[in-house]
Amino acid sequence: MIRIMKITVISMGEVKNKPSIELEKEYLKRLTPYFKTEIAEISTRKLAGLSEKERKSKEAEAFLSKIKKDDYVILLDENGATHTTAKFASLVKKHMMAGTKNIVLAIGGVFGWDESIKSKANLILSLSPMTFTYEFARLILVEQVYRVATIINGIPYHKE
Amino acid sequence: MIRIMKITVISMGEVKNKPSIELEKEYLKRLTPYFKTEIAEISTRKLAGLSEKERKSKEAEAFLSKIKKDDYVILLDENGATHTTAKFASLVKKHMMAGTKNIVLAIGGVFGWDESIKSKANLILSLSPMTFTYEFARLILVEQVYRVATIINGIPYHKE
Asked: Exposure winner among A113, A122, B37, B47, fewest CB in 10 A?
């Protein structure tokens, strides 16, 4: 039996937009045969009054408590490297083959990532030269993970 | 009184996914103070049995019937140029200042654009090195147009 790899999407901040949550749910449902995909939201509600530096440091702390030593950590960051979907799929497939247990895809908060976190990441990835909110970035990311699953498994992308 | 510029998003194919339509509607609603934004769907249902060449030619014909001579036409294409959101905003602002009546943002069908259309476009733009379905590309595009509106008007991006 082939073990299903886990993909954890960590987002700094909660998604509250209902249609966005609905659409994300749909992709997560479609993903069930391929990956054990989980969304882990880190609440940032209590960080609203902090300075940028304090906030990034608090977020870094919260983020580090969520990841394990052998996770493959991909940070989403607008200054990261861009990948085609095919290249992203190859990377994910390589980790499936190598027995990686969990790929973490992490979306930063309003000020981006603390430098201490950037140096710990295995890859810093940008979805596009365009800028998105963390909420919308999460939706794009989950859609791309689904597309990656269809590429790896050689199935046509479901068109509804 | 300042005339509100029109932005027409043309998509080759209908979006049927409900949460995607809901989210798009939300961005369109938020856009009302800034642009006259319109979605024009070209139905591709009757083109399903055609060859790639025939289909692209039929799509090109339908697309040309939708645009006017003085429209500024931006084709979305995965091989197009990528722009940052700031650069995209500058371009849109330049057209507002110059009195452009309508910016057309057009998303191609499953096989992409016919060459005859590419040569008629004012700009060929790629949203990301990643690949999206036309449905999801349309959602990203509408979200970006909203972000462009917030940049041009100097208002903070609405976080819900």
From this structure: A122
Closest residue in B to A159 (Cα) is B133
Task: For residues A140 and B159, give the distance between their C-alpha atoms in angstroms, rounded to a whole number.
Answer: 17
* Inter-helix orientation angle B85-98/B134-152, to 10°: 70
**H or E segment and range at residue B48:** none
> What separation in angstroms does the CA of A10 have from each of A41, A111, A142?
6, 16, 11
Q: How far is CA B13 from CA A116, B38, B65, in A?
A: 45, 15, 15
Global ipTM: 0.90
Q: Residue B145 in contact with residue B30, Cβ under 8 Å?
A: no
Do A83 and B129 count as a contact with CB atoms less than 8 A apart?
A: yes
Measured CA to CA, the distance from residue B103 to residue B9 in angstroms comes to: 8
Q: How far is residue B23's CA from residue A136's CA, in Å, rounded to a whole number?
A: 10
Beta bridge partners of B107: B11, B76
CB contact under 8 A, B22 and A26: no
Q: Could you say which of A17, A86, A88 has the minimum Cβ distance to residue B160? A: A17
pTM of the model: 0.93
Mean pLDDT of chain A: 94
Contact A149, A35 (CB under 8 A): yes
- State in Å, rounded, how far the first CA of chain A is from the last one: 31
Task: Pick the residue from chain B with its C-alpha nearest to A16.
Answer: B160
Q: Does residue B28 sit at the A interface (CB-CB below 8 Å)? A: no
Name the β-bridge partners of B13: none
Q: Chain B residues with CB inside 8 Å of A127's CB? A: 128, 130
- Cβ separation A26–B16 shorter than 8 A: no
Directed axis angle between helix B134-152 and helix A134-152, to 10°? 160
* Nearest residue to B101 via CA among B124, B123, B72: B72
d(Cα A91, Cα A68) in Å, to the nearest integer?
A: 20
